[in-house]
Amino acid sequence: MTRPEQHRYFVYAEGLGRAQGHVLEAGSFEAAAVEYAELYTPPVDGDDEIRIFVADLDGGQEHCFVIDLSDDGQAERCD
């Protein structure tokens, strides 16, 4: 099975800020958000959600994701 092309992302969680961010390699913005949540256990809010910001280090584009831990743990784009 071929691994998808990897990109470098800077990822950080709401409540921790950029100073606690990490550079990760992943196949997509969403994959980087999920990997960050699995590796670094960021703070969970009162709704059992984690809000994560992912910036592409090469292109500069940034996206926000919410991971709902009470549901299925999938990352969805922030509203």
Q: What is the structural class? A: alpha+beta
Strand content: 35-45%
Number of helices: 1
The description of the largest β-sheet is:
5 strands, antiparallel
Q: Which regions have little confidence, pLDDT < 50, spanning 5+ residues?
A: none
What's the pLDDT, averaged over the residues?
89
Taken together, the total number of domains comes to: 1
Radius of gyration: 12 Å
State the total count of DSSP E strands: 5
Helix content bin: 10-25%
Overall shape: it is: globular
Distance between the termini: 34 Å
Topology order in helix (H) and strand (E) letters: EEHEEE
Read across the widest sheet, the strand sequence of neighbours is 2-1-3-4-5
Please give a structural write-up.
With 79 residues, this protein is an alpha+beta fold. The protein has one domain. It is built from one helix and five strands, in the order E-E-H-E-E-E.
Summarize the structure.
By secondary structure, the protein is of the alpha+beta class. Helices cover 15% and strands 38% of the residues.
SSE diagram, text form:
Elements: E1 7-13, E2 22-26, H1 29-40, E3 49-56, E4 62-68, E5 75-77
Antiparallel strand pairs: 1-2, 1-3, 3-4, 4-5
Summary tags:
single chain, about 80 residues, alpha+beta, five-stranded antiparallel sheet, 5 strands, about 15% helix
